[in-house]
């Protein structure tokens, strides 16, 4: 294939439209169904592994391997929306149905009715909005799980939390250089 002799007209140029949560979910579902890509992820028996992917519309995307018994701990993705789908194995998502303040707090007393749990076997996923607090776990004692994740805008930070019963405590704020 040869390169075009002149630039494409402006009307055909790619315009930067922000992907929606539905766009991200469609992307992670398509990507999770790509068995050839999924097979390229090296798996480590002791720690999570990942490959950065090119997501739609400038989003940040990842292929992640989860050894048996591993998880993320409680966290959010700040101002980013996101989606993820399990490609193989099964993941569990625990989430909180509460909007956290974006700043200015260290501990928060949670109401009794905020906990949500989802089992996500291969092919199942979910999208979420900004400030979505969750933890993702591979509860298997024998099998790896693999998932695909996408975020827009690319993650400006991740806030990590600890939880003791009904108290959520902000423990750490990670910047992109901490995980890239």
Describe the structure.
With 180 residues, the chain is mainly beta. The protein has one domain (18-178): Jelly Rolls. Helices cover 9% and strands 41% of the residues. It contains two helices and twelve strands; from the N terminus they run H-H-E-E-E-E-E-E-E-E-E-E-E-E. Residues 1-15 have low confidence and may be disordered.
Provide the spatial order of strands within the biggest beta sheet: 1-2-10-4-8
The global form is globular
Q: Major beta sheet, specifics?
A: 5 strands, antiparallel
CATH architecture designation: Sandwich
Q: How much strand content do the residues show?
A: 35-45%
How would you spell out the order of helices and strands?
A: HHEEEEEEEEEEEE
CATH topology: Jelly Rolls
- What count of structural domains? 1
Distance between the termini: 34 Å
- What's the mean pLDDT score? 89
The CATH superfamily appears as Jelly Rolls
Estimate percent helicity.
under 10%
Number of β-strand runs: 12
Radius of gyration: 18 Å
- Report the uncertain regions: 1-15
**Number of DSSP helices?**
2
Name of the level-1 CATH class: Mainly Beta
Q: What structural class should be given to the helix and strand makeup?
A: mainly beta
Write a brief structural summary:
The chain has 180 residues and is mostly beta strands. 9% of the residues lie in helices and 41% in strands. The strands form three sheets. A five-stranded antiparallel β-sheet has the order 1-2-10-4-8, with helices on one face. A four-stranded antiparallel β-sheet has the order 3-11-12-6, with no helix packed on it. It has a three-stranded antiparallel β-sheet with strand order 7-5-9, with no helix packed on it.
């Amino acid at each position: 294939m040869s390169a075009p002799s002149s630039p494409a007209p402006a009307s055909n140029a790619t315009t930067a439209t922000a992907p929606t949560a539905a766009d991200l979910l469609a992307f992670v579902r398509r990507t999770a169904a790509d068995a050839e890509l999924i097979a390229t992820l090296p798996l480590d028996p002791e720690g999570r592994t990942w490959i950065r992917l090119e997501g739609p519309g400038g989003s940040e995307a990842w292929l992640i391997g989860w050894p048996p018994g591993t998880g993320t701990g409680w966290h959010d993705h700040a101002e980013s929306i996101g989606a993820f789908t399990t490609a193989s194995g099964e993941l569990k998502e625990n989430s909180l149905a509460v909007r956290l303040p974006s700043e200015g707090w260290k501990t928060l007393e949670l109401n009794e009715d905020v906990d949500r749990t989802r089992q996500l076997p291969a092919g199942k996923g979910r999208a979420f909005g900004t400030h979505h607090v969750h933890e993702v776990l591979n509860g298997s004692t024998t099998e790896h799980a693999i998932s695909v994740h996408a975020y827009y805008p690319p993650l400006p930070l991740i806030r990590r939390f600890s939880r003791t019963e009904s108290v959520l405590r902000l423990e750490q704020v990670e910047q992109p250089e901490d995980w890239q």
